[in-house]
Structures are given as structure tokens and as C-alpha cells.
Write a structure and sequence with these properties.
275 residues; single chain; mainly alpha
Length: 275
């Protein structure tokens, strides 16, 4: 991997991780379209650690409260009645589907799921679903329930396929379940932490193994790309939370549709290899 590719992909990861447009799809497309090769699922998983560190820092106070409430709840009945205790459990419960499916389908995630025809198709399909949820669902609730955690957790598991978008899938599910845009976005950020950290840490040995992938990044390249993803991702979180409080997701819906259609066109003309 060249230094330019590492820098660009770190920037792309930071810009797209929290937007409902699929960061893994963008890293996959940009890597292939402009650099002629796939950076690989392991590299993508590791640089996502940078964006999740951004979530940890941005929501540090909330996360600290959740963890403290969860431990207090082990011994105190009163603590188990608090919102922070419930939120801690909601993040744990919502993380189970993607953890289980990620382990069961780890080989497919690194191979067949990265076919660009699949990416293009799900960009369009899940873009339409996001548009329907944003337009027709009632965005009335800001407080989560157990059914929200389960539904959004199942939706997050679909993001194992590049193009679905982890944030897009969870936001779509949250909106259909009746959450307002800000509440769905906040929980989407928090829900990503266990799964993405787990996937990133699990993939570090693969990235360090220079023979595992033909275009493997060096350790310095991986570190720099992760740091860039962190810095850009932190700014993106702040921007998106302000944006969704005043706007719909229609801009992201149209972007997904156009990107999916353009990608299908490039694949059909043979200008881009699907694998």
C-alpha cells in the first residue's frame, strides 16, 4: 500500500463512518477505483478503531455514567431502575447479533461479501429503506426501549455487508421503530463501540501479517490512517448531531442512490472489477 492510499483511506473512513452511506463501501470503492486494489477487510476494520475512539471521547461522560451504573446495578436494586443502567444493557444486547454473525461469517465478510455488485445493490436498496423510514415513520420518541435495542442491533448486523452502512441500518431501524432522528443517531454511535472495537482488535494480527493480503499496509501507514480517521471522525460526529436535529436524511438517501447506480454502470462497462 502506498502512503497516499493510506492517507486517503483514513480520510474517507473518518468522513463516512457516522454518515448513513457506508464507510466500508467507500473505503472499498475508493481503494479499487483510484488505487487499483482492495485495501482489504482487515485494514478497514483496524482504521475503524480511530473513529470509535472519537466516539469514546465525544461521549466520554455518558459512557462513564453507563459503565458506573451497570456495575452499581449488580448490587443495587435502585441503580437498576436508572436510565443509565438500562442504556448500558441496551448497548450490550444490541451488540450481540453483529458479534455472533461476524464470527460465523468471518470468511465471507473478507471475501464474497466484498463483491462490488453486492455493494452497489445494497447501497440502493438500503438507501430506499432509509428514505421510507425518514419520510413515513413517526419520529416521536427520544427514550429507547428494549425493542429498539434489539431491532437496531439486528439492523447493525446487516452492515457486515459493505454498502448496507452500520449507521444507515441502525438509523433506519430506529426511525421505523418511532425514535426521533437525534435519539436514533446517538444510540447508533454508542452501539457501534463494542462491535467495531472487537472487529478492529481481532483484525490487527491480520494487518501485521504482511503476507496475509497482497496490498497489506505497513504498521506506520496503519497508525497514520487510524489517527486521521479519528480526527476527521470526531468532527463528523459533532456535525451530524447538529445536522439531524434540523434536517431529514434525504440528502444521504439521494447520495446512496446515485452512488449505487454509478457503481453499477462502472461495473457493467467493465471499468471496475467487482472482486
Amino acid at each position: 500500500m502506498s502512503w497516499l492510499q493510506a492517507l486517503v483511506l483514513g480520510l474517507v473512513q473518518g468522513l463516512t463512518e457516522f454518515l448513513p452511506i457506508s464507510s466500508s463501501a467507500h473505503v472499498r470503492i475508493v481503494s479499487t477505483l483510484f488505487f487499483g486494489n482492495d485495501a482489504g477487510a482487515s485494514f478497514t476494520a483496524v482504521i475503524q478503531l480511530g473513529t470509535e475512539v472519537a466516539v469514546l471521547i465525544y461521549f466520554a461522560k455518558d459512557i462513564g455514567n453507563f459503565i458506573a451504573a451497570w456495575f452499581r446495578g449488580l448490587f443495587s436494586k435502585a441503580a437498576r431502575k436508572t436510565e443509565d443502567y438500562r442504556m448500558a444493557w441496551y448497548v450490550i444486547i444490541g451488540s450481540i447479533p453483529i458479534s455472533v454473525l461476524g464470527y460465523l461469517f468471518k470468511d465471507e465478510i473478507r471475501s464474497s461479501f466484498r463483491n462490488l455488485w453486492i455493494t452497489a445493490t445494497v447501497l440502493v436498496v438500503f438507501g430506499l429503506l432509509l428514505g421510507l423510514a425518514d419520510h413515513f415513520a413517526q419520529h416521536l420518541r427520544s427514550r429507547l426501549k428494549l425493542t429498539d435495542a434489539i431491532g437496531m442491533g439486528l439492523a447493525q448486523a446487516l452492515a457486515l455487508i459493505p454498502g448496507v452502512s452500520r449507521s444507515g441500518g441502525t438509523l433506519t431501524a430506529g426511525l421505523f421503530l418511532g425514535l426521533d432522528r437525534a435519539a436514533a443517531a446517538r444510540y447508533s454511535f454508542l452501539l457501534a463501540l463494542p462491535a467495531v472495537f472487537g472487529a478492529g482488535i481481532f483484525s490487527i494480527p491480520d494487518v501485521l501479517d504482511r503476507g496475509a493480503e497482497p496490498n497489506a499496509a505497513s504498521v506506520p501507514q496503519m497508525i497514520v490512517a487510524t489517527v486521521i480517521a479519528f480526527a476527521v471522525g470526531y468532527a463528523t460526529i459533532a456535525w451530524l448531531l447538529r445536522y439531524v436535529s434540523k434536517h431529514s436524511y434525504s440528502a444521504f438517501v439521494w447520495y446512496r442512490l446515485m452512488l449505487g447506480i454509478v457503481l453499477m454502470g462502472l461495473l457493467s462497462m467493465g471499468l471496475l472489477s467487482p472482486t
